[in-house]
Amino acid sequence: MVKCEQEIKDIIIVGGGPAAITSAIYAARMKRCVWMLYEVLAGQASLTSNIENYTGFRMISGSDFTDTLQDHLDDYDLQPMKEKVLEVRKNDGLFEVKTGGNLYKSKAVIVASGARHRELGVPGEKEFLGHGVAYCVICDAPFFRNKDVAVVGGGNSALTTALELVKYASRIYLLSKNEGLMGEQTLIQAVKVSEKIEFVPSAKILKITGDKFVNGIEFEVKGTAKNLEVRGVFIEIGYIPNSEIIDVKKNNRNEIIINERNETSEEGLFAAGDVTNIEIKQIVVAAGEGAKAALAASQYLDRIGGGYGH
């Protein structure tokens, strides 16, 4: 396909995960002039060890999945730009997308900026980041070979992290604020049968301790103070949507509110994936939402006389 060279793009897509990439591919197939701005290609999926619930793949690693997405993008010569988007605003009928060094304009925008790790907000978390505190098990698990570690959280992300650490750590303590584990039954069962993983329910994290490196985690269980000697703490307590770049209607979790057509409260601005208020946060769902957003944006361009970009 011909590269999109026009100054005012048809659609600018913010993000680099499955929702954003699917949006870009669908929009390009409809001959739209598409510009894609991202920070991490494949988003959180790139940091996943193995993906087992994406249609067409019995199992694929996060890195191989990222390569597959990149290959698909290359088929359409979409020229994704690695730039951090700071703000999206509408001005005189056009959208302006501001990055650290550039200002791009378009007739429509799809925000598929995903979400980032939620922080615990306890003493020691920031101080020991990179020195025992981690948010990415794929990146950091090998550093904890034959060591005791803690995983904070009780959902799918925490379960997956604990299971990945089984390959490396001596002992994994899975600390959750809830009484039980929450997530896919296959993951819960795998955690329960693992001899290396010990589940600690009703744990309220108080502090991460250490000297130059993490050496423990302090918490309480129903008012009783406890301490574990660990060399690593993996924090998996959910995500915060990357929605601060745009002023549209959001829910109490700061997720962008969309309708069944992925429309936001701002005409011409669409959103897809984990940054939105869709209940299910899964890779395959995000990809489907990206396709919907691209189709809706293309129909919007037809209504306003957007024509074909290239």
UniProtKB/TrEMBL annotation:
Pfam families: Pyr_redox_2 (PF07992). The lineage of its organism: Bacteria, Bacillati, Chloroflexota, Dehalococcoidia, Dehalococcoidales. Coiled coil: none annotated. Keywords: Disulfide bond, FAD, Flavoprotein, Oxidoreductase, Redox-active center. This is FAD/NAD(P)-binding domain-containing protein. One of its GO terms (molecular function) is oxidoreductase activity, acting on a sulfur group of donors, NAD(P) as acceptor. It comes from the Bacteria. Residues 9-290 form the FAD/NAD(P)-binding domain.
